[in-house]
Amino acid sequence: MRLQESGEMYLETVYVLSKQQATVRAIDICEHRGVSKPSVSRAVGILKQGGYLLCGEDGGLTLTETGKSVAEKIYERHTVLTEYLVSIGVDKKIASEDACKIEHVISDETFKAIKSKVNG
Fold it and tell me: Which domains are delineated in the chain?
């Protein structure tokens, strides 16, 4: 199952939140992303069905190995792209917003080249 941009964003959100708190619930995603509970419920259902996410009896969401792999890739792209854009003079807030858009469409080759410049 090929993830769409929104699916990648939800996985990245679960990943980021899981680094900040012990349990991630749907309401946490709503608050973090500024989206409605029905939107999160739909996305969680799709991600569970695709094998990217597990939901515990307590409502806690956990990334599967596949989900974690995708989330880490997107998160790395976001952080490296943000850092790169800031390094060329873009305001940090704008850089983060732009990185969020770019991270889903940039080729692996181009990302690798940018990453080598950032980590240079």
Answer: 5-69 (1.10.10.10), 70-119 (1.10.60.10)
